[in-house]
Specification:
By secondary structure, the protein is of the alpha/beta class. Among the domains are: 166 residues, 3-Layer(bba) Sandwich (FAD/NAD(P)-binding domain), CATH 3.50.50.60; 117 residues, FAD/NAD-linked reductase, C-terminal dimerisation domain (Enolase-like, domain 1), CATH 3.30.390.30. Helix content is 32%, strand content 16%. The chain contains 15 helices and 14 strands. Helix 2 runs parallel beside helix 10 and helix 4 crosses helix 5.
Length: 476
């Protein structure tokens, strides 16, 4: 209750600044642009290009502040430069390392002395990212979107102050403004030495040489048991119930660190901070959650100030996922132009964690389903299975697990799907479509599978957690 009161109090403080909003009057057609987007990430680019395609005069402001280590990148935002793209490519490099080990079991004669060259991988990944940066610039030009490599902040509800790397300023006016500045990683500032000796995902993907060893400090971490066990078997050491005291101290000998030629990186929720502090939101009166720094938005992405909207990671209550930002940006552009009234549906968005053994999910967790519907009204089907490709390779499959959360009544509407195993993203993407069509357990059971695949195990589920029976798959 106290936290809620603080949040509301913070919002009230910000609201009082509305009296300071500029009262400049703009006659129809006197704006420099009909839409200006601050932020050149996935959501901002999608919104700007869609609006331009629909005949709007559009500009995008994008400027990347260098990280504490001096790392900087080009147009495209977190996903392209320091997120989804380099992460998945490096994940693939790690999977190939495992595949080489498996290949010996399948008869391939592979020398034992194989090694990995981080610099070769890094150069290839970084070159691909740079090609995407260039591609985004070309697309903006082709769609007649004005690209300004400048940092933007609000002056009033129609005016933006833009500053370039040399400090040169200009102002830009727009009928509508979309804020899409995303977020940056947090540093654990309470840990001495963290700022001087630590790096974040903003830096690691642009390293020229392998970091050899990494420590991932975290707070308030909840790990799915099967994912934690799988990570340990893949040479990732989990140090549970420990506290970082000083990052400039040598680790005690009792602590085991594993040096990996290729490191599959995943966040243990130190979290990301919204890039809203430099937008001058207080002066204009845009309401934020003072605890998260995120902008409070309505169902149509509107902020508390008319003509100003927010999408993507900086919007309160939105999934921090690239595809949601892209779709939300496109739908917003269509509404602003008057071509549609369709709102973004943030329910049942699928996602995947690219750990050594991937985890994909869509819909509700078992716990959330029980909270919403009551434990007696929820049925959970589950199975432990072994991918065929793991057999000859003699790989541990004890962590390959599937769970489908359903309502107990009627046809048993599916509330959530959780899949741990190879290519979890590819599997989950297909099944997530069913959520748009009212997927039920009966639909799953009536579907003919593709054999032998991991995905078919989802439609073979028949053991409930309630029954207490062994959920290990033993045959076709």
């Amino acid at each position: 209750m106290a936290a809620f009161s603080r949040r509301r109090q913070g919002i009230k403080v910000l609201c009082c600044f509305r009296t300071l909003i500029s009262t400049r009057n703009f006659a129809a057609g006197t704006f420099d642009y009909e839409l200006v987007v601050i932020g050149g990430g996935s959501g901002g680019l999608a919104c700007s290009k869609e609006a331009a395609q629909l005949g709007q005069r559009v500009a995008v402001l994008d400027y990347v502040e260098p990280s504490l280590k001096g790392t900087k990148w080009g147009l495209g935002g977190t996903c392209v430069n320091v997120g989804c793209i380099p992460k998945k490519l490096m994940h693939q490099a790690a999977l190939l390392g495992t595949a080489v080990k498996d290949a010996r079991k399948y008869g391939w004669q592979i020398p034992e002395s194989l090694s990995h060259d981080w610099s070769v991988m890094a150069e290839a990944v970084q070159n691909h990212v740079k090609s995407l940066n260039w591609g985004h610039r070309v697309q903006l030009q082709d769609k007649k979107v004005k690209y300004l490599n400048m940092k933007g902040s609000l002056v009033d509800k129609h005016t933006i102050r833009a500053v370039n790397a040399k400090g040169k300023e200009m102002t830009v006016t727009a009928k509508n403004i979309v804020l899409a500045t995303g977020g940056r990683p947090k540093y654990p500032t309470h840990v001495p030495g963290a700022m001087e000796f630590g790096i974040t995902s903003d830096d690691v993907f642009w390293l020229k040489e392998s970091p050899k060893k990494t420590s991932l400090p975290s707070t308030q971490v909840t790990l799915v048991t099967v994912m934690a066990t799988s990570s340990q078997t893949a040479d990732v050491v989990l140090l549970l119930s420990c506290r970082a005291v000083n990052s400039n101290l040598k680790p005690p000998k009792a602590v085991r660190y594993v040096a990996l030629p290729v490191i599959t990186l995943f966040s243990l929720t130190l979290g990301r901070a919204s890039e809203t502090k430099t937008l001058n939101l207080e002066k204009v009166g845009v309401e934020i959650n003072i605890e998260t720094g995120k902008i409070i938005v309505a169902a149509d992405e509107a902020t508390s100030v008319p003509n100003i909207f927010a999408i993507g990671d900086i919007a309160e209550g939105r999934p921090e996922l690239t595809p949601t930002a892209i779709k939300a940006g496109k739908l917003l552009a269509r509404r602003l132009v008057g071509h549609s009234t369709e709102l973004m549906n943030y329910d049942n968005v699928a996602t995947t964690v690219f750990t050594p053994l991937e985890y994909g999910c869509v819909g509700l967790s078992e716990e959330e389903a029980e909270r919403r519907h009551g434990k007696d009204q929820v049925e959970v089907y589950h199975a432990f299975y072994k991918p065929l490709e793991f057999t000859v390779a003699e790989r541990d499959a004890t962590q390959c697990y599937i769970k489908v959360v359903c309502l107990r009544e009627g046809d048993q509407r599916v509330l959530g799907i959780h899949f741990t195993g190879p290519s979890a993203g590819e599997v989950t993407q297909g099944f997530s479509l069913g959520f748009q069509c009212g997927l039920t357990y009966e639909h799953l059971r009536n579907t003919v599978g593709i054999h032998p695949t991991c995905a078919e195990e989802l439609i073979k589920l028949n053991i409930t957690k309630r029954s207490g029976l062994d959920a290990t798959v033993t045959g076709c």
